[in-house]
Design brief:
By secondary structure, the protein is α/β, with parallel strands linked by helices. It is built from 7 helices and 12 strands. The strands form 3 sheets. A 7-stranded mixed barrel has the order 4-10-9-7-5-11-12. Strands 2-3 form a two-stranded antiparallel ribbon. A two-stranded parallel ribbon has the order 6-8. A hairpin with a 7-residue loop joins strand 11 and strand 12. The protein is globular. The N and C termini lie far apart (about 40 Å).
Amino acid sequence: MGKIKMVDLTHPFGQGTPMWPAGDDPHSIKIQYMSKHDRLTQLFYGYHMHIGTHADSPSHVIQRGAHTHELPLENYYGPGVVLDIPKGKWGIITPEDLENATPKIEKGDIVIIHTGSHRDWGHNDDYFAYGPGLNADAAKWLVQKGVKGMGIDCQALDHPCATYMVDHGVGPFVPRLIEQYKKETGRYPKEDHPDWEPVHTILLSNNVMGFENVGGDIEMVVGKRCIISALPMRWYMGDGSWVRMVAFIDEDEINPNVKPREYKYGTY
């Protein structure tokens, strides 16, 4: 047995962080810098808690739902599995996918799903508009299994066509997707995805934490059982929080021949 290693499952955060297709582009400025002040201090503008690797709180989608400061830290820490469930464009993760994945999901687990979408992380349609997601039945299966949390290497817990990128809620924010989906499938998105973010609603209303935009070095621990930690900021009345998601795993269990991912500044 080797020593315990920490594997980062978090996308880097900062200037140029890929943004879900709504709202303004966040940015940062230096108010103190070394050449003048011999100090570095930065301000961030336009950053909400739902970009980058983050956790959703029930209050994000449920009226009178619990806020971030009301959730116990235990919700963000515990035994987990990193499941390999490859899905391509507009793929759907089903209960059968979860049932057949290994290691087997156990009660109390934090379930992290690796679809491969994290490789497209950036300002592009492949990641945000064409990615996969769970369906409502998969969310119900996780609740019945008694899991503590669920994270995914995609833009959201829900399928893109169940968000207000198309004609849900205050959408469509990306109306071209409606015709693209119809051209490719022969159906309107709402025919296949009639409800607005059902996975969010099902999981968060049952105290199952939801983690989105999981990434970093996830491929080092795919198919492994480990301890997951994704602690939030202590945001009073918060609807979510950025997290630093880490997998604690025996170094002998880390997938061989997988090296840490290199992120280049400004290439999002």
